[in-house]
Design goal:
Layout: H1 12-26, H2 31-41, H3 43-46, H4 51-65, H5 71-83, H6 85-93, H7 98-112, E1 137-141, E2 147-158, E3 161-173, H8 179-182, E4 203-206, E5 217-221, E6 240-243, H9 247-254
Parallel strand pairs: 4-6
Antiparallel strand pairs: 1-2, 1-5, 2-3, 3-4
Length: 279
Amino acid sequence: MGTWGADIFDGDLASDLRGQLRDLLGEGVPPARAIKQLLAEWNDALRDPEDGPIVILALAATGWDLGRPDAALFQRALKLIDAGADLAHWEQEAPKLAPARRRALNALAAKLRKPPPKPKRIPKRVLAETDLEVGDLVGYRLSTGAWVALVVNEITQDKGGRYPIVDVVDWIGREPPTEKDVRGKPAKGAWFKSVPHFREERIFVYGLKSSAPSGPVRVVAKRFPRPSVKKLGPPIALGMFQRVSELESTLTRTFRLKPARAGTRTRARRTGHARPARR
C-alpha cells in the first residue's frame, strides 16, 4: 500500500479504513460493533509493526471526526502515540517527513483528549455506476470554464459500485478537447510533498459518467490510447480514489493543471520531472 504524505490519512491503508468505517456507520451498524468488525477484518495488519498502529490511529481519528467516540479505542491510540510506536517507522524510513508526522500525531492526541463533536449524519453509500468505457477520451469542464482531458484506462468494480480509472492528459483548453488536440500528449503527473518530482498517478473516480451534451463530462473519442508516462516517476500508490465532487480540486492542486486564459485554446506546459514554482 502507498503513502504520499505525513498526515494521518495520507496513505492507502488509513484512507481505506476511514471509508470502511463510514460505510458501516452509514448502513446503521452501531459504532462499537463496526469497530469490532473492522479490527477483526484487519487482524493481520494489526500484527504488523508498521501497519498495526495505522489501523488503530485511522479508526480512532475517523470515530472522533464523525462524533462516534470509542473510549477503549481512543486510549489504545493514545498509548501508541505516547510510546512512539508509529513515529519510529517514520524516523527510520522517512526521516525528512518524521517531524511532520510527529506534528500530525500530536494533533491527533490532542483531539482524542477532547470531547468529540456531535454525531454527524452519515448517508448510506449509493452504489456508483458509469457508462464510460475503456479507451474513452473524456473532456471534463472545470468551474472556471476551462476543459481538461481524461483517458479511461480501466473500469473497476467493488462494493462501492462500478467506476472508471482515468489518466490525466497534459492538456488544458477553453473548448472541449478533440482527438487531434491531445493525440501524442503525455500523461500529467501528480505532485506530492513527500516525493521529489511528478509521479505517474491514476484516479479512481467514484460517480464519473457522461452528462448531457451541454454538461461538464463529454466523451469526445473512443478507443483512444493511454497517454505516455515515460517522463514521470513511478507511482507511489495503486491510484487515487476520488469522488467526482472532489475531482476539480485534485486536478488543479495535485496535478497542477492551471486554467487557460479566456479566449485562448491553450495546452498545459510539459512538466516531466521539473519542480513547480512555490506558491
